[in-house]
Amino acid sequence: MSNAAGEIETFRRRLGDSGVLTGAADKEPYERSARHAGGRTVAVLRPGSDAELAWTVRTLAALQLPLVVQGAATGLVGAATPTPDGRQWVLSTQRVRDVLEVDPVNRCVRVSAGFRLSDVNRAAAAHGLVLPIDLGADPTIGGMIATNTGGARLIRYGGVRENLMDVGAVLLHPAGECVGSAKGLRKDNTGLSWAQLLCGAFGAFGVISRATLKLHPVQQQSATALIALSDAHAAIGLMCDLEREFGEMVSAFEGISGAALEAVALHQRNVPVPFATMPAYAVLVEVSSAIPPGQGLDLEAMLMNWLERRMVAGELVDAIVDKPAQLWRIRHSISESVQACGRLVAFDLAVSRSRFAEFREAAVRVVQDMIPSARICDFGHLGDGGIHLNLVVPSALDAATIKVLRDTVYDLAVFRFEGSYSAEHGVGPYNASCYERFTSPLTRELARVLKMFLDPARILGNAQLS
After folding, report:
1. Has domain 342-425 been given CATH number 3.30.70.2740?
2. Which end of the chain is more exposed for a tag (fewer CB within 10 A), N or C?
3. Where in the chain is the domain with CATH 3.30.70.2740?
4. With bands split at pLDDT 50, 70 and 90, how would you rate the model's confidence at 326?
């Protein structure tokens, strides 16, 4: 019996046949990447409880078998995808579903890593609560914590880090040791926090097993508008005015280029874009409240009134108020529509809100100078400074030119505008070179020391944090 065969049998004795996948067809879904090239794995390990997860991690560590932890595999930088060499074992947390418990008084949820965002929100809805991380995908809770997921409503609620109360995790050193808690405390100023260490570390330091997350009241009314503007500069003033008018009721402020809207109109026939002429730039705005209609607050009337005043002031080209679901369909259709336009070079960037329009203008100029035929289909969470700069480029464009383009845009964002090269998607094999280039030596050294203590054999994960 080969080493791999013997190791597989060891895991199968504890996890059962359904907990160890070795057939090519069974492994294939776990070897795919949501955006980039996939990899190969020795086997997929699927523990079905906290206890089985701890045993699996302990055994992998004892045998010094390289592993990559995977939730729903919706990440976009390759951190949860096995490498092409076929040496890694995939540790799937999808069956780790011991607990899903909503505490309506403490307004939180205790949840195992394998539950999905939709599972949590179904359970929370019964209590009039929600975990308001708005995404196009449906990730596992463990994956959301590992990547510090943001989403379209970060402007109001923050991302996972701001909503994470506690986390439980299994370490590789000491092997199989369980750390963290699920106390659900809103205040605990007694030392270092496992939750904050593991959130956004992309699985580099431990395997998340469960967590406690804040919940928020379900919004009882909302109003949404798609607003046509002359350019992104106009959007900044409009955003500030909207926040002055509606305060904390502003729950989304999304920027959308005219080219991105055109892509939706071209490739999504069942998603109508309501403008007769595509604007140069548009914003999708949402205001919402937990106060039910009929109690003295009519958000749609308030938003209509605000739009009329802005129109009279000449600040808008056009504005459409419609059912929120209808307008959000446009926003959520952009990624798929842009991908259908041709070969894509995509960036996930962020700058401060005050420099957003200036950065966008500079980035467009850089791209047009380098590749005049490129189609710039940008969109993103303008309310938090995020921009998905998606470029449709000629199919024959060579790899060397694309590398120069990427380096130039990243340098512009990070060095000139003091922004981020990975606003939401995180760090993985796909952008490891950016981590090396833009992260300070001291930060990298701290990550290296932590990695050496928590994973001395360096067998855990693909995240390039050291």
Report:
1. yes
2. N
3. 342-425
4. very high
